[in-house]
C-alpha cells in the first residue's frame, strides 16, 4: 500500500493531503504556516496527516509540493543580489524596459517605477555579438569577460545572470560565459537566458533570466533543506515541485529553474479544481480560491486551464508559461479600514496574515478583518482547522465595532455586512478579468470555490456572476494540496523562428516539432517516465506580419502529417482566436514566431471516492441551528456536519455546512445538493441545475 502526499504552503495556512492510491481515501491536515522556515509547517502537517491515517512516514512514495518561496522572495524584495552580463551597448536594458506605464491618463506622474532586480552598478557589458540569424558578428572577447566577472566578484554578487543579444538563435557565447563564470565565480549560481528563456525579445528574456537568478539561491536552499528533513523523518519518496503551468518537475530541476515556480501555489488550486469538476461532470468552470491572504481566480474550458505566456508577481512581469491566474488582495485576513480623507470603507490589500492574524484568533491581532466580519455575522463556527484554532467572538465584535464607529453605521452587524459585501465585489472584479475581459460569459460556466474562506463567500459570488452551479469540493480548504497530488510530471521545449508562412512548409514545421518533442521527452525520461507513457502537446505564438505582439494558439501536430494541411489549419486557428479576442481579422500574411512542445507524464492513478446514496432528506446530518445575519436581517440557519451527508441529500438555505478545513454558507432561496463525488452543488431553488 502506497501513499501520495500533496503539500501546499499559503500565506496563512499550510495544507497537507495524504491519498491512499489504492482506495482514494484521503487524510487531511491544516496547520499555521511558518514564514521564517516553511519546512517547519510542512513537516508538522505531514506528521499530523500520517497520524490520522495510522501510517508511517516511510509509507509515503511521493511528495508533491506547491510552494510560495520564489513568490515571496520577489514580493518581499528578499531575492539574491544579482549580477548581469550583457552585450556591449545593452547595459541599461532593464532600466529602459518597455514603454508601458500602468494606470490611466497621466498615470506616469504618480507611478513609482519598480527597481530592476539587477542594479545598474552590478551590470556589465562584454565584447562579442551574435546576429539575429545566429551567425557570429564579433567573436567573444574572453579576456574582457574574465575582467568583468572579476569586477562582479569584487562587488559581492550572490547570483549571476547572462543575457546576450540574440542568444536564442545561437547560445554559444552565453555558454562560454557560463564556463568562465564557473572558474571566476565558482560558488555563484549562474542563469543563462538561452536556457531559461530561449525566445525573442531582449528585455523579456533578460528580466526573466534575472528573476530566475534572484530567487535561485533561496529556492535551492529551501528545496535542499526540505528534502533533507523529509529523509531524516523517514520519507524516502520522490520530492517534486509544482510549476506555474500546473505540471510537476523534480526538485533538482525546480531548483535550477525557479522562475517557473512563481505561481506554483495558485496553479495547484486550478489543477485540483479541474480534478473535482471532472468528477462532478462540469468541464467549463471558473475557479475561486480564497485563502487567508489573497484570492486567486482562473477560467477552465473543456477541463483545460487557460495558460498564459506571462507571469505577474507584484510589479514584476516575466515571460514564463503559467496558468492564467489573477490575484487580488482579498482573503480572510484582509484588513478593513476607513481612510480619514474619504471616510469610505476599504478592505485589503493589507492582511493580518498568520501572525498576528484576525482579532478573532486572539493571538494579538486587533485590526478588523474579513474573518472577524464573518464571525460577527454568525457565518463561522467557533472552531477552525479541526479545533486547532478557537475563535473569540467578543474580540471580533470589538474589532468590527471600530468600523461601525468610523462609518457611522448603526450596528456592528451592518459594518460586518459592509466588509463582506466589499470583499465580494473585489473578488467579482477579479472573476470578470478572467471571463468577460477575455470574451467569455461567466453565466456559461460553473463556479468551483475552495480555499479556507472560499465556500463562505461562494454562494454570494454565484449570485454576482450568474455562474451555476457553485461547486464546493470535498476538503475545499486543502484542494490546492489535492491538485499537487493529482497532477503529472511536465516539461517543455521552445524554439523562436520568426518566419512568415510563405517561408515555411509543413515538412519543415513537422521536423521542428519532432526535435522539440524529443527534447521535452528527454527530461521526463531522465525522471523515470517511460516514453510510451508520455504525451506531447504543441502550441505556437503567431501574429500577422507587421504586428508587434503574438497570440498563443494550440497546434495540431497530426495536421502536419500529410504535408498539406498543417499551416492552413494553424492559420485558421489563429484567425479564430484573433476574432474572438479583438472582433476582427486582417488580410495579411501570417508569421510564426515561437513554437513549443510540452511533454506530459501519465496522470496518477488515484481512485475517486464515491458517496453512498441517501435521498434528499439531510436531517440526519443536522447538528442544530444558529442565528446568522444575512441579507440585512437576522435569520435562523441550520447547521450541518458535512462528514454525515450522503449523495442526493439536499441542504436548503439559510444553512451552514461545517467540516474540518472550511465552512460553507448556503444563502436563503438556494439549496446545496450532494453529488456522489462528494461535491456540494449550490443552485437557486427556483432554477435548479441539471443533476449529474
From TrEMBL:
Boundaries of every Acetophenone carboxylase-like C-terminal domain copy: 509-673
InterPro entries: ACX-like_C (IPR049517), ATPase_NBD (IPR043129), Hydant_A_N (IPR008040), Hydantoinase_A (IPR002821), Oxoprolinase-like (IPR045079)
Keyword list, A-Z: Hydrolase
GO biological process: glutathione metabolic process
Residue ranges occupied by any Hydantoinase/oxoprolinase N-terminal domain in the UniProt entry: 4-184
SUPFAM superfamilies: Actin-like ATPase domain
Record-annotated Hydantoinase A/oxoprolinase domain positions: 205-491
Cellular component aspect of the GO annotation: cytosol
Catalytic class of the enzyme: hydrolase
Listed GO MF terms: 5-oxoprolinase (ATP-hydrolyzing) activity; N-methylhydantoinase (ATP-hydrolyzing) activity
EC number, as in UniProt: 3.5.2.14
Pfam annotation, one family: Hydantoinase_A
PANTHER family xref list: 5-OXOPROLINASE RELATED (PTHR11365), HYPOTHETICAL 5-OXOPROLINASE (EUROFUNG)-RELATED (PTHR11365:SF23)
Protein name: N-methylhydantoinase A
Species in which this protein is naturally found: Actinophytocola algeriensis
Amino acid at each position: 500500500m502506497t501513499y501520495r502526499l500533496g503539500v501546499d504552503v499559503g500565506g496563512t495556512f499550510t495544507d497537507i493531503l495524504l491519498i491512499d492510491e489504492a482506495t482514494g481515501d484521503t487524510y487531511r491536515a491544516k496547520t499555521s504556516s511558518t514564514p521564517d522556515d516553511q519546512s517547519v509547517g510542512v513537516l508538522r502537517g505531514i506528521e499530523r496527516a500520517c497520524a490520522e491515517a495510522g501510517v508511517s512516514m516511510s509509507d509515503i512514495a511521493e511528495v508533491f509540493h506547491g510552494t510560495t518561496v520564489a513568490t515571496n522572495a520577489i514580493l518581499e524584495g528578499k531575492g539574491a543580489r544579482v549580477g548581469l552580463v550583457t552585450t556591449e551597448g545593452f547595459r541599461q536594458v532593464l532600466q529602459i524596459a518597455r514603454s508601458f506605464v500602468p494606470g490611466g491618463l497621466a498615470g506616469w506622474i504618480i507611478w513609482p517605477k519598480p527597481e530592476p532586480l539587477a542594479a545598474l552598478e552590478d551590470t556589465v557589458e562584454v565584447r562579442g555579438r551574435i546576429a539575429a540569424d545566429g551567425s557570429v558578428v564579433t567573436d567573444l572577447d574572453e579576456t574582457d569577460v574574465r575582467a568583468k566577472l572579476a569586477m562582479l566578484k569584487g562587488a559581492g554578487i550572490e547570483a549571476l545572470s547572462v543575457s546576450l543579444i540574440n542568444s536564442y538563435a545561437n547560445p554559444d557565447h552565453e555558454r562560454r560565459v557560463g564556463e568562465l563564470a564557473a572558474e571566476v565565480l565558482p560558488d555563484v549560481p549562474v542563469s543563462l537566458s538561452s536556457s531559461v528563456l530561449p525566445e525573442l525579445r531582449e528585455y523579456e528574456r533578460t528580466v526573466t533570466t534575472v528573476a530566475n537568478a534572484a530567487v535561485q539561491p533561496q529556492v535551492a536552499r529551501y528545496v535542499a533543506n526540505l528534502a533533507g528533513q523529509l529523509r531524516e523523518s523517514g520519507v524516502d519518496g520522490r520530492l517534486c515541485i509544482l510549476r506555474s503551468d500546473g505540471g510537476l518537475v523534480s526538485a533538482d530541476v525546480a531548483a535550477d529553474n525557479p522562475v517557473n515556480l512563481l505561481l506554483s501555489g495558485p496553479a495547484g488550486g486550478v489543477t485540483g479544481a479541474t480534478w473535482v469538476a471532472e468528477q462532478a461532470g462540469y468541464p467549463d468552470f471558473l475557479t475561486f480560491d480564497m485563502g487567508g491572504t489573497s484570492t486567486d481566480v482562473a477560467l477552465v474550458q473543456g477541463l483545460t486551464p487557460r495558460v498564459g505566456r506571462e507571469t505577474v508577481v507584484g510589479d514584476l512581469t516575466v515571460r514564463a508559461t503559467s496558468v492564467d491566474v489573477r490575484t487580488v488582495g482579498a482573503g480572510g485576513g484582509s484588513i478593513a479600514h476607513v481612510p480619514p480623507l474619504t471616510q469610505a470603507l476599504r478592505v485589503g490589500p493589507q492582511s493580518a496574515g498568520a501572525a498576528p492574524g484576525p482579532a478573532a484568533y486572539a493571538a494579538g491581532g486587533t485590526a478588523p478583518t474579513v474573518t472577524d466580519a464573518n464571525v460577527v455575522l454568525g457565518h463561522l463556527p467557533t472552531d477552525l482547522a479541526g479545533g486547532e484554532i478557537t475563535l473569540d467572538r467578543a474580540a471580533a465584535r470589538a474589532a468590527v465595532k471600530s468600523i461601525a464607529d468610523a462609518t457611522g453605521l448603526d450596528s456592528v452587524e451592518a459594518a460586518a455586512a459592509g466588509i463582506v459585501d466589499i470583499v465580494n465585489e473585489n473578488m467579482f472584479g477579479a472573476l470578470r478579468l478572467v471571463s468577460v475581459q477575455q470574451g467569455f460569459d461567466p453565466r456559461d460556466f460553473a463556479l468551483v470555490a475552495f480555499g479556507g474562506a472560499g465556500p463562505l463567500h461562494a454562494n454570494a459570488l454565484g449570485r454576482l456572476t450568474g455562474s451555476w452551479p457553485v461547486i464546493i469540493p470535498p476538503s475545499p480548504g486543502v484542494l490546492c494540496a489535492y491538485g499537487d497530488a493529482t497532477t503529472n510530471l511536465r516539461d517543455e521545449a521552445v524554439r523562436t523562428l520568426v518566419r512568415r508562412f510563405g517561408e515555411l512548409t509543413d515538412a519543415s514545421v513537422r521536423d521542428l516539432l519532432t526535435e522539440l518533442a524529443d527534447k521535452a521527452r528527454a527530461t521526463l525520461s531522465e525522471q523515470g517516465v517511460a516514453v510510451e507513457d508520455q504525451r506531447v502537446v504543441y502550441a505556437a505564438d503567431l501574429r500577422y506580419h507587421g504586428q508587434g505582439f503574438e497570440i498563443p494558439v494550440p497546434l495540431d501536430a497530426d495536421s502536419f502529417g500529410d504535408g498539406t494541411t498543417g499551416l492552413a489549419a494553424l492559420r485558421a486557428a489563429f484567425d479564430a482566436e484573433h476574432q474572438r479576442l479583438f472582433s476582427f481579422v486582417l488580410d495579411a500574411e501570417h508569421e510564426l514566431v515561437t513554437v513549443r512542445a510540452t511533454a506530459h507524464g501519465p496522470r496518477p492513478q488515484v481512485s475517486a471516492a464515491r458517496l453512498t446514496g441517501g435521498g434528499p432528506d439531510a436531517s440526519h446530518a443536522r447538528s442544530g441551528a444558529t442565528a446568522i445575519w444575512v441579507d440585512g436581517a437576522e435569520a435562523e440557519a441550520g447547521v450541518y456536519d458535512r462528514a454525515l451527508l450522503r449523495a442526493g441529500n439536499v441542504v436548503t438555505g439559510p444553512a451552514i455546512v461545517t467540516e474540518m478545513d472550511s465552512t460553507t454558507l448556503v444563502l436563503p432561496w438556494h439549496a446545496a445538493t450532494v453529488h456522489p463525488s462528494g461535491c456540494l452543488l449550490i443552485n437557486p431553488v427556483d432554477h435548479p441545475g441539471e443533476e449529474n
